[in-house]
Structure formats: structure tokens, C-alpha cells
Amino acid sequence: MKFDSQTIKNIVAFEEFTGASVVDSLPDKNVIFFVIKEGQMGLAIGKNGKNIKQLQNLLGKRIVAFEHFEEPNKFVRNAIPNIRDIKIDEGNITICIRKDNVNNTMGKNIEIIRQFLERLYNITKIKLVRMIKW
Hints:
It is a single chain. Helix content is 40%, strand content 29%. The protein is an alpha/beta fold. It folds into 2 domains: 5-67, K homology (KH) domain (GMP Synthetase, Chain A, domain 3, 2-Layer Sandwich), CATH 3.30.300.20; 80-131, GMP Synthetase, Chain A, domain 3. Strands 1-2-3 form a 3-stranded mixed sheet, with helices on both faces. A hairpin with a 3-residue loop joins β1 and β2. 23% of the residues are buried.
């Protein structure tokens, strides 16, 4: 992975400010997304969200952090709540989710999650299956 200079500055600020290790990062217009090392989410967030709140003020953007896992299915389950089932097959991932949770869960984050899946796990396609019955 190659990072531009602004992304490198954001990663350094995140790591120095929170003490958590960044695995990957993607900027968006008003948000900076970070994937942090497994087991370090509490460290990154800080007591009562203090670290994230102060870092948002420092960087002037909203911060969203996802926890990294070796297995892509664990990463997706952590990043997207309310998943019913996940299937991974040859660089593709199928995610089954309740139909009434799609808008609340997905939003703009699904494209960022797709990019992280490609960069970290070599998964290039996401298929969402909206389930009516749970």
C-alpha cells in the first residue's frame, strides 16, 4: 500500500495521540477511516471516547475506526453490524443482512469497507443480499 503525505500525517497523528497501531487508512471528504490493530480499539477510543473526540477536533474531521482481524469474515462482522451470514469465495464476499437494516448499516461506509477488503484481504467484490425473514 502506498499512502499520500496527508494520509501519512493522519496515521502518525492517530498513533501518537491514541497509542493504537494503524493497519490502514482511507480519507473521505469529511471523515477519516482507520483500521487499527486487533485488540486496540479500547486504546484508540479512550475513556468515554475521549481520544477519538480530541483527535476529531485536532484533524477537523470525523474519525471512524474499524478493528483489523486476520480473517476477513471477522473484520466484516465487526465493521457491519446485524449481519446474518457471510460467504467468501475466490475474491468475492456475499453478505446477508436484514432488509430493514440495510440503510442504517450500509450508508457510505460500504464503499470504504469494500476498499479495505480489497487492500487487506484481496477481496474485490461485495454482494449484499437483503433478507426479508430473519
